[in-house]
Specification:
- The chain is of the alpha/beta class and 236 residues long.
- It has one domain: Alpha-Beta Complex (Spore Coat Polysaccharide Biosynthesis Protein SpsA, Chain A).
- The chain contains six helices and eleven strands.
- The strands form three sheets. The protein has a seven-stranded mixed β-sheet with strand order 5-4-1-6-10-7-11. A two-stranded antiparallel sheet has the order 2-3.
- A hairpin with a 5-residue loop joins strand 8 and strand 9.
- Helix 2 packs across helix 4 and helix 4 crosses helix 5.
- It is globular.
- The model has no long low-confidence stretch (mean pLDDT 94).
Length: 236
């Protein structure tokens, strides 16, 4: 009897309010290149046929979701979000507990990264392959990095070749990710991303080089940059 091939699931947490964005409307509901940020992000994930379902932990009661047509797609499911991103991701993992196998793959992506390309998602899936743990998209650092004190004094210049800027999606085995996230939260620690929970569990993931234009919308001015990126991607 052949071993069943793993399935692929996506979790896109969207319960945050984006404090650094400084707006009354959460950043995922701002217009960008003809549609809302959430519409672009979810549409790009939906373009990957192997993804079984996209789980979106969020404020389900928000009226803004009515402006995101893609949520009518049967592969998109809204579930209740948590207090912080890590809690939302865990809620998403719990939501597929009865369907996902421990060796299935889960791709966790930031709703605020609408410029992710389907090619980059495919590259992550293909290059992680049959890895026992998983991997993340990450970009090389182009700027010179300085180690500084809390007061802003420069301590040293670090070797940027040894560092990468973590991106999403981050793709891990379902069972390992759920255990790692739950363990870290049980110990009153908040993972900054899924890879940090995997690291906390003593596991080692791999890095797949991502594109520099897979930016995260964090501040208002990032919308302008993201729009320029999208127009450039359309011209490729």
């Amino acid at each position: 009897m052949n071993k069943q091939s793993p399935k692929y699931w996506a979790i896109v947490p969207a319960a945050g309010t984006g404090k650094r964005f400084s707006a009354d409307i959460p950043k995922q509901f701002h217009y960008l290149n003809g549609g809302l940020v959430a519409q672009h992000t979810l549409s790009r994930l939906l373009s990957i046929p192997v993804i079984e379902a996209i789980i979106c932990p969020c404020d389900i009661s928000s009226g803004y979701w009515s402006k995101v047509p893609v949520i009518e797609n049967p592969r998109v499911r809204l579930v209740a979000g948590g207090d912080q991103r890590a809690h939302s991701v865990l809620n998403g993992l719990v939501a597929i507990h009865d369907q996902a196998h421990k060796d299935d793959w889960v791709l966790v992506h930031d709703m605020a990264r609408p410029c992710i390309t389907p090619a980059s998602i495919g590259k992550l899936i293909n290059e992680v392959g049959n890895h026992a743990v998983g991997g993340i998209l990450a970009a090389p650092i182009n700027d010179t990095l300085k180690l500084v004190t809390p007061q802003g004094d420069i301590v040293s210049t670090v070797n940027r070749a040894e560092y990468r800027a973590a991106q999403t999606p981050q793709m891990f085995r379902y069972g390992l990710l759920q255990e790692a996230m739950q363990s870290m939260l049980d110990n009153k620690k908040i993972p900054t991303d899924e890879a940090s929970a995997i690291e906390y569990a003593g596991l080692q993931a791999i890095v797949i080089e991502g594109r520099q234009d897979n930016i995260k919308i964090t501040r208002r001015e990032d919308l302008v940059i993201a729009e320029a990126i999208m127009k450039n991607q359309e011209a490729e």
